[in-house]
Design goal:
Elements (H helix, E strand, L loop, with lengths): L9 H7 L4 E2 L12 E4 L16 H8 L8 E4 L13 E4 L3 H23 L4 E3 L4 H17 L3 H6 L8 H15 L5 H26 L8 H6 L28 H24 L6 H20 L3 H18 L2 H4 L1 H17 L1 H16 L17 H9 L3 E7 L2 E6 L2 E7 L7 E5 L7 E3 L6 E3 L7 E7 L5 E7 L2 E7 L6 E3 L5 E2 L15 H15 L13 H4 L5 H6 L15 H9 L1 H22 L7 H19 L10 H27 L1
Antiparallel strand pairs: 1-2, 2-5, 3-4, 6-7, 7-8, 8-9, 10-11, 12-13, 13-14, 14-15, 15-16
Helix pairs in contact: 2-3, 2-7, 2-22, 3-6, 4-6, 4-20, 6-22, 7-10, 9-10, 9-11, 9-13, 9-21, 10-13, 11-21, 14-16, 19-20, 20-21, 20-22, 21-22
Length: 666
């Protein structure tokens, strides 16, 4: 409906009908317009948008997550000391999702442009645009200021969540908020999500039962081009023990996005049951089956982050819905039975996961982390080895010296490149330490009880480079004495690296906290000081993480101390490093506004319609997701669904707030 001045003449209306205008008028109830801006042919705030205009939103929310396809690409990786993977890379799970996200955003802009040309463009009145704009500005500033623009623009390897992708999220959020106007539009988001969820859940079920679709010949051909079909036997993914990874690559991300869907499908099942004969039986069965399948996949993914999110969902639901839950005892009892049955079937999966998570949080045994392949198993032998190993406080190189501290006892090794067989050892007081030959070897021991687990000696490689070797508790540290250069550590990839003290904060006694997150977070927190305002560039976390912290990984009991940390396992920390602290505050403001608005809308509300149940389900899922984000990362696999449902949830809140206002007016 055109926003016209009702006191003006028809001629005046005709004269000004095609001019865009700020909506400052009031309607029949005396309220300010629901539009912040609208053009003459803008639809009513509750008027259904044509289904065709919802297609980018539906695909973005429901189907981007399903894309899997082989992609080969080139990246300048040889500049980094911690990788020898080369510059030519291959991945399956992220690139085409990123492409689809960008295409959806472009189509959304095309639809917005169409609305402008047809005088039907409008912007709903809401505060959400302020944090969205602030966030987008700092994403762009961080890109402009980045030292690694290629990575900042398109994102890190295997992730592809760079500046372009982050801005596409905001475009889609804006588009969805201003496209979903009534129940029919909502169903164009929810029903495709249900179809997608059903297919993904069945895929996850096949993986859990040891019949992974992507390991079949047809599945492999589907995700590769024909030129590689003669090499299909060599195509395997690194998943073991029937892990559920669906199409999101990392098992953590399965439970991460399922925290969005399980509450939604649970609420829609309750709605169908409560409506009794008004809802056909097949809908009750559909929502119940989807709830059960998603619960199975969440538990089967063996990721405690999803359990954490679902615990929050239950807690928020109890607070928000309180007495309403009693009225829902019948459908809730059915959902509880489904959950118990699924829990019983998957007993061997979730019990070890929760037990391991509890032990890592409490620091009982942190010798194993899920994110760190090759770590020792939680056996008595592993615990004994960990307990007998000393602690290397630091290890750094400077000039021709190697400075080290072991169990609080500093020691300095002074080498002489012109005489590789000579070495001088001194303690913290500058006192010279004697050495003695180790029988049967060319190594020497240190004649001091503080360093009795040490062995040192010279070596030379086939290229003629001389080394000074330090063995500590059976671990070998090789230092190259390069002519004309400072002495440097030779890592397991054969790269020469100068070592320095790495700043850390927290988790000193429990580096294995949260499956190794204690170590990662303790190194990430000091990094955040330099990006309190502007980040290093979207998705550049891996470049700036101290991957030369070999001592830290050694002390945290990582078997492979050269393992690359490419993400913080915390969505907020990752954003802080990539796009800056202000961008994170903007996101928090966006989400807090939604949470407060949802509480205001649904508090003590008598739920009745599909729209209301969907709104509550989305709100609970968003709450669970944001808590799970404390231990999971933003990724192109899960964020489209998050922002798609968030935009739908915001649109629902706007609709219901308007209904409340109209009801009060009457």
């Amino acid at each position: 409906m055109a926003n016209k001045n009702k006191q003006g003449s028809k001629a005046a209306e005709s004269k000004h009908a095609t001019k865009p205008q700020l909506s400052k008028k009031t309607d029949a109830t005396g309220r300010k317009s629901d539009y912040l801006f609208s053009m003459s042919m803008a639809p009513r705030i509750d008027e259904e948008m044509h289904w065709f205009q919802t297609l980018p939103a539906a695909f973005f929310t429901a189907f981007v997550i399903m894309l899997v396809r082989m992609h080969q690409y080139h990246r300048p990786m040889n500049q980094f000391f911690w990788t020898n993977s080369g510059n030519n890379l291959t991945e399956f799970f992220s690139y085409y999702k990123m492409v689809a996200i960008v295409i959806c955003a472009v189509l959304a802009l095309v639809f917005i442009l169409y609305r402008v040309f047809t005088q039907s463009f409008f912007i709903k009145r809401t505060l959400y645009y302020i944090p969205m704009l602030v966030y987008s500005i700092f994403v762009l500033i961080s890109y402009v200021m980045s030292d690694y623009k290629e990575f900042a623009l398109w994102g890190w390897n295997d992730r592809f969540e760079g500046t372009v992708t982050l801005l596409a999220y905001m475009v889609m959020l804006f588009f969805i908020m201003n496209t979903i106007n009534n129940e029919k539009n909502i169903k164009w988001i929810v029903y495709p999500a249900a179809v997608s969820s059903l297919l993904l859940s069945l895929l996850g079920l096949s993986q859990a039962l040891g019949h992974d679709f992507f390991q079949t010949t047809f599945g492999k051909k589907l995700i590769t081009s024909s030129q590689f079909w003669d090499q299909l036997d060599s195509l395997t993914f690194t998943f073991t023990h029937r892990e559920i990874y669906q199409t999101v690559y990392n098992i953590n991300y399965v439970s991460f996005y399922l925290t969005l869907l399980i509450p939604l499908f649970g609420l829609l099942f309750i709605h169908s049951v409560v409506k009794e004969k008004e809802e056909p039986l097949w809908k009750k069965i559909l929502w119940g089956v989807l709830f059960g399948l998603n619960m199975y996949n969440l538990i089967g993914s063996k990721s405690s982050g999803g359990f954490l999110g679902m615990a929050v969902v239950v807690l928020v639901a109890l607070i928000l819905l309180n007495k309403t839950i009693i009225k829902w005892w019948k459908p809730l009892a059915i959902l509880l039975v489904i959950t118990v049955l699924v829990g019983g079937v998957t007993y061997e999966r979730w019990v070890p996961e929760l037990t391991g998570a509890a032990r890592s949080v409490l620091g009982i045994n942190n010798s194993k982390t899920q994110e760190v392949p090759g770590k020792p198993d939680s056996t008595d032998t592993a615990q004994t080895e960990s307990a007998s190993k000393g602690h290397i406080d630091y290890l750094e190189t400077k000039g021709n010296k190697i400075m080290m501290s072991y169990n609080g006892n500093p020691i300095t090794f002074t080498t002489y490149p012109e005489n590789p067989l000579a070495v001088k050892l001194t303690d913290k007081d500058g006192k010279a330490l004697d050495i003695a030959p180790l029988e049967g070897t060319n190594f020497y021991t240190i004649a001091d009880d503080r360093y009795r687990s040490f062995a040192i000696g010279p070596a030379q490689d086939t290229a003629g480079i001389n080394y000074f070797i330090v063995k500590v508790d059976g671990s070998e540290w090789d230092f190259a004495m390069l002519r004309g250069q400072d002495i440097q550590y030779r890592n397991t990839l054969g790269k020469f690296v100068p070592l320095k003290k790495v700043e850390s904060f927290g988790w000193e006694k429990n580096q294995g906290f949260g499956s190794g997150r204690g170590y990662i977070w303790s190194r990430t927190l000091p990094m955040m000081k330099s990006t309190a305002l502007i980040g290093h560039g979207a998705d550049t976390y891996c470049i700036y993480f101290p991957n030369d912290d070999y001592i830290g990984k050694y002390n945290a009991n990582w078997d492979n101390i050269n393992l690359i940390v490419d993400k913080p396992h915390n969505m907020y920390m990752g954003a802080w490093i990539g796009t800056g602290g202000i961008s994170v505050l903007a996101l928090l403001a966006l989400w807090i506004i939604y949470i407060l608005q949802s509480i205001k809308v649904f508090w003590k509300r008598n739920l009745n319609s599909f729209t209301e149940y969907t709104g509550v389900g989305i709100f609970l899922g968003i709450c669970g997701f944001l808590v799970s984000a404390l231990v999971d990362d933003s990724t192109v696999s899960v964020m489209p669904m998050f922002y798609g449902l968030l935009g739908t949830g915001i649109a629902i809140n706007i609709m219901l707030q308007r209904q409340n206002t109209e009801h009060k007016a009457h």
